[in-house]
Amino acid sequence: MATKSRKYRALSELLPFQSSSDRKGCFALPRSSATTHRSRCGEEKCLLLQYRNKVQESVFRAEVKKTEGEKLCFFAFLRKPNMASSMRSLISNHSRYVESFRLFLENSTEHECMLEFIEKKLPDIISSIGNGKSAINILSVGGGAGTARYPGVAINHEVIEPSDEQICHYKDRVAKTSNLENVKFTWHKETSHEYERRMNAKQEFKKWDFVHMIQMLYYVQDIAATIRYFHSLLDAKAKLLIIIVSGSSGWDTLWKKYGSLLPLNAPSCYVSSADIKKVLDTEGLKYQLFELPSSMDITNCFIEGNKDGELLLDFLTETYEFSKTAPLHLKNAIMEDLKKPECSGERDGKVFFNNNLSAIVIEP
Asked: Which residue segment(s) compose the domain that 249 sits in?
C-alpha cells in the first residue's frame, strides 16, 4: 500500500474497491461515485473525481498486485494536486485583495443586511444586558471597523484585532462618530487565541455583558474551543453574538464542493453557520439564529475579460487571478455552478450570488 511519503492515498479509502482479472491491466471506478475511467497499468492521467459532493482534481496511477491463486488485483492511488505552481491565495497580493474586497462591498448588500439587523433587531435582543448596571462591558473579537452605540450608560468597549490596518479603520470610524462620549475604547493588537493565552497567564477572568464575533471565526484554528472560551466569560444576563455566512448561502455550496482545490490562505478555514450550529448543539448551548438575506451581483463574472468580473471571481474563490491560473476544467465547473440555484438566482437579466449571512445570539 502507498505511503504518505510517496504522496499517494489508496483509492479504496474513498471509493468501493473493484478488481477484475479479465480487464487485462485496466480498472474501473464505480459509476455512482465518479466518472468511469480506464487506464493501462502504470499510466498517469488527470481525472476530475466527484465524491460525496466534493470535487478533487487528482492524478491516478494503476498498480498490479498478485493475490492468492495468481489472480490479478488492481489498486489505484490518488495524489493530491499541487496547485502552488499556478494558483495562489488572493491574500498573497494585498493590493488585489483590497480591490476585490472593495468591489465585493460595492456589488453586495453585506453591510446593509448586518446594519439592519444591528439597528432594528439586536437592541431588543440585548436590552436586558444593562439592567441595573451603571456600566456595561463589551468585547469585540476581530471587530474590524465596526462601531456600537449604547447611549445612557457608561461603556467599556475593548477590541481584539490583530490587523494594524483594521485598528486604524476602527479608530477613524470612532473619531467620526458622534454620541460616543460615554464609550471608552481599548484596542488589543492580537488574535483571539493570543488574548486568551494572555488572560490565562495573568489569571484574569473578566466577565463581559456583550461579546461579538462578526465575520471572524474563519480565522481561528479551533472554533469549538474559541466559542467555549468566550462563552465562559459571559456575565449572568450577557449575550454572545456571532455573524457568519449562512449554511444556506452560495459560499457554503462552493466551499464544500471546491474548497480542497482552492489555495486558501493558511490561517483561514471554510466555515458557515451550519458548522457553528453543530458546535453549539454539541456543547449544549442555548441560542437563537437569525437569517440575514444578502446578495451580490456577479453578472460581470460571466463577461469574458471583464476586469470587475475577474476581481469578483478572485474574491469568490480567494484565488489571485483565478481566471488566468485555474485549470480550465476547474474554472468551467465553478462558472457552471455559480449559475445554479444552489449558488445564485437571476433577476432582470442579472445573476445574483446568494450572500446570505446568519446572526447567532448565544445565551450564558
From this structure: 88-362
| Cα–chain center distance at 118 | 22
Cell numbers representing residue 364 in the block = 450564558
The pTM assigned to this predicted structure is 0.74
CA–CA gap between residue 51 and residue 57 (Å, rounded): 11
Could you list the mean pLDDT of each consecutive 10-residue stretch along the chain, which spans 364 residues? 33 33 34 34 35 37 38 38 66 91 96 93 86 85 56 82 87 84 89 92 90 92 94 94 96 91 72 96 96 98 96 95 94 96 96 97 94
Residue 74 maps to a domain: no
Evaluate whether residue 140 is within a structural domain: yes
> What is the DSSP code string of 96-128?
HHHHHHHHHHHHB-HHHHHHHIIIIIHHHHTGG
In 3D space, the residue among 180, 238, 244 whose CA is nearest the CA of residue 210 turns out to be 238
In a domain, 172, yes or no: yes
* CATH number reported for the structural domain that contains residue 190 in this entry: 3.40.50.150
Q: How many domains does the chain have?
A: 1
**Amino acid sitting at position 65:** K
Is 138 domain-assigned?
yes
